[in-house]
Amino acid sequence: MSDQRISGESNPPPEPEGMSRRSFLRNSAVFASGLAAVAAGLSPLLDIENFPSLQEFMQKYYKEMTPEEMKKVLERIEREVERQYGIRPHVRDLKPLDGVEYVYCLNLTRCIGCRKCVHACVAENNQSRNPEIQYIRVLQMQNGSFDMEKAVHDYNPEKVPEKGHFYMPVQCQQCKNPPCVKVCPVHATWQEPDGITVIDYNWCIGCRYCEAACPYWARRFNFTQPEIPADRLNPEMDYLSNRPRSKGVMEKCHFCLQRTRAGRYPACLEVCPTGTRKFGNVLDPNSEVSYILKNKRVFIQLKEELGTSPRFFYYFDV
Amino acid sequence: MTTAIRNYCVFLGRCGRIAFVGDWRYYSWMGLLTVFCLLGLNAYCRQFAHGLVVTGMSDQVSWGVYIANFTFLVGVAAAAVMMVIPVYIYDNEELHDLVIFGELLAVAAIFMCLAFVTVDLGRPDRFWHLIPGIGQLNFPASMLSWDVIVLNGYLLLNVHICGYLLYSRYQGKKPAKWFYIPFVFIAIIWAVSIHTVTAFLYVGLGGRPFWNQAIIGPRFLASAFTAGPALIILALQVIRHVTKYHITDKALLTLRSIVQVAMIINVFLLLCEVFTEFYAGGLHITSSKYLYLGLHGYHKLVPWIWTAITFNLTAMVLLVLPVSRSLKWLNLTCVLCITGIWIEKGMGLVIPGFIPTPLGQIVEYFPTLNETLVCFGIWAFGLLCYTIFLRMAVPILQGDLSKANEREALAGTVAH
Amino acid sequence: MKDSVKTTIVLNVLIVVFLALATGFLLKAWGQPAPLQQIPLVDPEFIKTATVRVSYSELVAAKEDLSDFDCYGCHEKGKPPVLRFDDKHMLIIPEEHKDIVMGHGRNNRNNLCTNCHDENNLERFQTRDGRELTFSESPELCGSCHGPTFRDWNAGAHGRTSGYWNRDMGPIVRKDCVSCHNPHSPKFPGRQPAPPPHILHPPTNPAPVAEGEH
Predict the structure, then answer these.
(1) Per-residue pLDDT tens for C97-145?
(2) B31 touches chain C (CB under 8 A)
(3) What are the structural domains, with CATH classification, of chain B?
(4) Where are the domains of chain C?
(5) Which domain holds residue A261?
(6) For residue A256, pLDDT beyond 90
(7) pLDDT over threshold 90, residue A15
C-alpha cells in the first residue's frame, strides 16, 4: 500500500516535498494560458447590443401583471423605442372587446396575388425588413388543386393574376384548437377571449417549438436583431402586437389587434385592391362575415382534417 | 454532522485534484478536448451576441443540428439503463461495477443534452421561465415541459446513485441497499420515459405528417438501445486500455447481444416505416420522398440517409455473424452503429420534418462553421466530463483512492 | 523518451496552443457571421390604400371639380348623340371620348352606350326596367344586371371596405362600384405584383430547379 500509484501514471515516484518549482511554474503557465484563452473566447460578448435591462429580465408574466405594473412596462417600452428609433411611440394594452369573436373570410375568386397585403402588414406591424419577416405568404396555386406541393411562393411575373392559377394568402389562422398554444413550454402564447392567439414577447424563450407545431407555417422567429427603418416605424403600438420585438423571440399575425380591438379593420384588409378580405365579429349576425358564412357555399378551412378549427374561411363566390 | 460534511469535502477535494493529474496521454487528450471546448465557447458567444442567424437555421427549417444532437444524446443517456437491467433484474454480477461507468456516461450525456437545448434557445437568459413555481411551466400540455422535468430528474437520479455508490466505496463501507436500490429501479423506468418523452415531442405535432406517426417512439428506443451500449462497449475498452481496471470480455459480449437485438428491431422498424410511406403514397409522404429520393431537384440528404442505412444494415449483418465476437470486428460494428444511428436521428429525422414546409416550400439546411464549432464544443465538454468522472471513479473502485490513504495523501507523501 | 519528458512537451504545446487560440479569438480570425443580403425596401406604392379611381359620389363629397360630368357643356339638349358602327358592328368611339375603351361584357355584347346612358337625358342612367338613376346612384345601375354581386355589395361581402368594423366605435367606409371598376371596361387589368419573399440564407450557387417551381 505504500507503493501507491495513480492508475495509468507511470511517472517516477513523487518528490517528498510535493511539486518541484519548475513543474509548478509550468503548470501555472498552462493554467494561465488556458484562462487567457477562455477570456479571449468570451470576447464576442462585447459585441452585444441591446442587452436586456434588469427590469426586462425580471418582468412578470403578462397575465400576472397588475395594471400599475403594466403601465410601468408600457412606459419602459416607449422609452426604449424612443432611444432606439428616435420616435416616441404610443404603446397601449388593449383588452379584448366583449361579445366579440373575430373571423376572417377570404374570397379566392378575387385574390389576384399582388402581395399588397403582405407589405401593408409589414408596415403596420413593424416587422423586420432585413432579415425579412412577413406574416402573410401568398401562394400561387394551380387551378383545380389545393396541393401545396405544387404551390409557388416566389412567383414574380410582369402582371398578376396569371392564367391557370388562383392565389391564396396564408397567415395565422387563429385556430380554435391551436397546436402552438399546446406546445409552448412557458405559456408565452395563448388564445385571448376574442379568438386572437397572442404572444408575450417578453416571456418567450425562443425554443421554436411553436414554429414546428404550426401546420400553416404562420409563426416567425427573430434570428437576429430586427431592422426597421426609423422613417417607416408605426408609432401606434400595442403590448401584445406590433411593438418592436427583440432578437430571439417569436412573432406572428395577431389580426392587427392594435386596430381591431379599437374597432378598425386590419391593415391587410384595407389595402387589398380587390376587396378579397373580409373581417368582423362572427357573433354579430349583421356583420359581413356572418353574411358570408350564411350565404356562400364552398368553404375551405385549410388542413381541416388536423382538427385545428381555424378561424380563417376561404371561399369562392357564388 | 460537521465531521460528515468535512469528510465529504475532503473526498470532493481529492476527486477534484486527481482530475488534474495524469500522464502525457491524459494531458494530450484533455488538452485536445479543452481546445474544442474553447472553440465552442467562443462560437457560442458569437451566437449569443448576434442571434441564431449565425446558424444555418431559418423559419423554414427551424431546428437543426443542435436538436439533432440533443435527440441522439437523450437516447445514449437512456441506454445506460440497458446495463442496469441485467445487473439488478437478472443478477449478472459480471456487469456490476460497470453499471457505474454506464451511469456516469448517462450523466455526461444529460449534461450534453441540457447544453444542446440551451444553445438552441433564442433567449437563454429567460430559462427561469421554465422553473415551475417561479416561471410558467406549461405542464402537462407541452411535451417540452415534460422533457425539462424528466431530464433533470434523470440527472439527479444518476448523480445520486453513482455518487452514493462511489462515496460508499471510498469510505470502504457497504452501501445501504434502501438508499440506492429503489432509485435504481426508478431509473430503469425513468430512462425509458426520457426517450419516450423526447419522441413524443415530435410525434405530437399533427401538422408535420413525417413525425406524426406511432412508429417514432419505438424507433427511438430501438436506436437508442443500439447506439448507447455500442458507445459503452467502446468506452469500456478505452478504460481497459488506459487503466488497470479489469473488464472481462464476457461483459463486452453481453453488451454486444443487447446491441444485436436492438439493431435487428431498429432495421425492422425502418422497413415498416418505409413500406407504410411508399406503398400507398399520397400527399403526406413528401418529406419521405425528399429524404430517400430527393424532391423537385433538392437532394442534399439523399446520400446521408443511404449511407446511414448501409451502415446499419452492415452492422446488423456483422452483429448476427459470429465474426463480431472478435473485438476488432466488434469495434468496427460499434462505430458503424453509432454513426449510422446518429445520421438517422439527426439528418434522417429532424431535418426532413421541415422539408417541405407545411405550405410546400423547400428550403434546404446545412450547418454553418459556427454551429459546427458549438456542437464540437459541447461534445468535447461531454467527453471532458466523462473522462473526469472516470478519472475519479476508477481509482475509487480499485481502492487507490480511498479513505484509508487519506491521511498520507493530505500529508503529501502520495502525489494525490 | 521518458514519460516525464513527453509530459513536458505536451504541456508546453498546450501553452502555445492556448495562446494561439486566444490570439485567434481576439483577432476574430474565423466564424464571423456572413453579412445579410441586401433587401431593398418595398416601393411605398404597394402599401397605399387609395382606390384606382374616384367615383362621382366621392367627388361630390370632397367638393371637387365636377366639370368632367357636365355632358351638356358639349352636347346639345334635345339632340340625342348618334352612335356609329363599323362594318363588324363594333362601336366607333368618337374622338372626344377617345379615352373610353369599350370592354363591358364578353363577345362585345354590351357594346352600346345606350344600354346604360339615357340618350335623351345624358345626365342620367337608364336601367333595363326603365328606371332613371343619377350619377351618384350608379351602384343601382350595375346591380340591375349584376344582381348577386349587388346583393353581396349591399351586405358588405363584395368590394372594398375600410374604417371601422365595429359601427359603435366609428363609421365604415364603403366604396362604390366605379371606385374600383372602370364602368366601360370593368374587368381589372393585371398589375405588377410586389416583390417575392426572400429566404434567410440564400444559397451561394442555387440548385437548378424546374421552371416555375419553388
Answers:
(1) 888 888 888 877 777 888 899 988 889 999 988 899 999 999 999 999 9
(2) yes
(3) 2-411 (1.20.1630.10)
(4) 44-180
(5) 102-316
(6) yes
(7) no
Q: C13 and B369 in contact by Cβ < 8 A?
A: no
The answer to whether residue A4 sits within a structural domain is: no
Q: Looking at beta carbons, which residues of chain C come within 8 Å of A269?
A: 161-162
Residues C124, C120: Cα–Cα separation, whole Å: 9
Over residues B395-414, mean pLDDT: 78
* A292-310: b (≥16 Cβ within 10 Å) or e: bbeebeeebbbbeebebeb
Q: What's the pTM value of the predicted model, to 2 decimals?
A: 0.92
Confirm whether A214 is domain-assigned.
Answer: yes
Is residue A175 within 8 A of residue A308, CB to CB? The reply is yes
- Among C13, C21, C30, the residue with its CB nearest the CB of B369 is C30
- The interface predicted TM-score of the complex, written ipTM, equals 0.92
Q: How does pLDDT run across B102-130, given as a tens digit for each residue?
A: 899 999 999 999 999 999 999 999 999 99
Give how far C5 is from chain A: nearest CA, Å. Answer: 10
What's the gap between Cα B42 and its chain centre?
23
Sign of CA dihedral A203, B367, B217, B226: negative
Q: Do C38 and A122 touch (CB under 8 A)?
A: no
- Please indicate whether, in this complex, the C-beta atoms of B63 and A212 are within 8 angstroms of each other: yes
**Interface contact flag, B360 A151, Cβ < 8 Å:** yes
Asked if the C-beta of C6 comes within 8 angstroms of chain A's C-beta atoms, the answer is no
User: Which pLDDT does position B412 carry in this prediction?
Assistant: 66
A278-288 pLDDT per residue, tens: 999 999 999 99
Domain count for chain A, please give it. 1
- Whether residue A160 and residue C190 make contact (CB cut-off 8 A), yes or no, is yes
C-alpha cell at C118: 339615357
Supply the CATH number for residue A215's domain: 3.30.70.20
C208 vs chain A: nearest CA distance in angstroms? 15
